[in-house]
């Protein structure tokens, strides 16, 4: 059985809830097919001890922004800085396969903007986005994308 890490940030609990549900969904898929992939959801925060990632992984990023309209040059990320620092640590970003993002569609152009910015900064694809804490079909679609991208990477 293969295992893949998904690093994430959760401030209000939506991302944590989604990642716990994704890991549980992955376990049901392994029961159906032992060749499926287990998800190890790892929360990154200011208190996380940095480590060098040994295998390819994904990140899940909520949208937290501050400044102006949210799309101008004055914008900056808030609350996700620990994840960026973790990715930069020992060039962990080189093992990053892709980015998932969550947000609120009510914020229009700002929807999953933080995930888009991470994808652009590390030149990795934004593989999937979902609203708030996601629904069941988001779990299924995201899990399918994880498997497809692991296969594409030869994992």
TrEMBL record:
Superkingdom as given in the UniProt entry: Bacteria
Organism: Oenococcus kitaharae DSM 17330
Domain (Flavodoxin-like): residue spans on this chain: 4-155
Protein name: Ribonucleotide reduction protein
GO molecular function: FMN binding; oxidoreductase activity, acting on NAD(P)H
InterPro entries in UniProt: Flavodoxin/NO_synth (IPR008254), Flavoprotein-like_sf (IPR029039), RNR_NrdI (IPR004465)
Pfam families linked: Flavodoxin_NdrI
């Amino acid at each position: 059985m293969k295992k893949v890490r998904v690093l994430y940030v959760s401030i209000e609990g939506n991302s944590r809830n989604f990642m716990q549900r994704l890991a549980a969904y992955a376990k049901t898929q392994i029961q159906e097919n032992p060749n499926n992939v287990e998800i190890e959801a790892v929360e990154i925060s200011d208190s996380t001890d940095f480590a060098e990632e040994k295998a390819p992984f994904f990140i899940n990023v909520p949208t937290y922004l501050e400044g102006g309209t949210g799309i101008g040059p004055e914008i900056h990320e808030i609350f996700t800085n620990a994840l960026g620092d973790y990715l930069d640590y020992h060039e962990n970003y080189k093992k990053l396969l892709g980015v998932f993002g969550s947000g609120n569609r009510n914020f229009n152009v700002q929807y999953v903007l933080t995930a888009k910015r991470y994808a652009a900064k590390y030149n990795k694809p934004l593989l999937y986005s979902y609203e708030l804490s996601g629904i069941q079909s988001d779990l299924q679609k995201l899990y399918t994308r994880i498997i497809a991208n692991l296969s594409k990477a030869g994992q």
